[in-house]
Hints:
Elements: H1 3-87
Keywords: Coiled coil
Amino acid sequence: xxxxxxxxxxxxxxxxxxxxxxxxxxxxxxxxxxxxxxxxxxxxxxxxxxxxxxxxxxxxxxxxxxxxxxxxxxxxxxxxxxxxxxxx
Length: 88
């Protein structure tokens, strides 16, 4: 092989090594970004679960309040009907 051809092959090999190095660097950078995104997602998922639990507790409290109000309303309506019947 002549020197010119060897030099071109050496240059091409050098370019390939540089390209692989750049690809590895980019891949590591992307892996780091992915790790950060996964951490953020996990954090958001945890917050979402906490908020969901909080909302369920609030709904349970509202449901209990509603049941109490309905019972009280029925009792009051019954008492009003009884008083009306006594006065007639």
